Amino acid sequence: MTTPPIVSPFGGQPPPPQQQQQAQAARDVNTASLCRIGQETVQDIVLRTMEIFQLLRNMQLPNGVTYHPNTHQDRLGKLQEHLRMLSVLFRKLRLVYDKCNENCAGMDPIPPEQLIPFVEDDSSKHEDRSAAQSRPATEERREILEVNKKLKQKNQQLKQIMDQLRNLIWEINSMLAVRS
């Protein structure tokens, strides 16, 4: 018994252009989706690895103790299944990695220093800021510096007052000690 040949629903003609575009779009997955798939694959790999270690920890070594052969075969089968799935997941991860590299091949690499936000010193300014964005930030920074300067002055005044009070109390105690 033979199976009949597969006939296209379009009578042997190629599919219409709209369906070709949809098929092409289904094949071309964007890089962000690939990264998400890769992340999920890595999570699956970690989960499977943890399960493998759990199985190995629960397995009893053949050290002269009698054990049920069916239990051993069952655990061995589970372990082999986990290892097989782990190798499949690693192959999937490799495919995702290669596809991401292929999609990003034409892009200019961005230095990691530009991707990491950092606190600027007074001497260094970030060139990427526009004038409209930096003006309010500069004004706010200047106000903060002024407030800090005033706060330091007030703290210095309070310290002087505390020192004067301490000296006054010491002198009073000294005078009272001399009287008695």
Descriptive overview:
This protein is mainly alpha-helical and 180 residues long. It is built from 5 helices and no strands. The N terminus is likely disordered.
Task: Provide a concise account of the structure shown.
This protein is mainly α. The chain has helices spanning 17-27, 31-58, 69-103, 112-115, 131-179. Helix 2 runs antiparallel to helix 3.
Characteristic terms for this protein:
mainly alpha, 180 residues, elongated, 71% helix
Please outline the helices and strands:
Blueprint: H1 17-27, H2 31-58, H3 69-103, H4 112-115, H5 131-179
Helix pairs in contact: 2-3
Largest sheet: none
> Care to count the β-strands?
0
Structural class: mainly alpha
Percent of residues in helices = over 70%
Shape, per Cα inertia axes: elongated
Helical segment count: 5
**Rg calculated over all Cα atoms:** 37 Å
H/E topology pattern: HHHHH
Strand content: under 5%
Distance between the termini: 128 Å
Regarding quaternary structure, what we see is single chain
Low-pLDDT parts are 3-9
Average residue pLDDT? 79
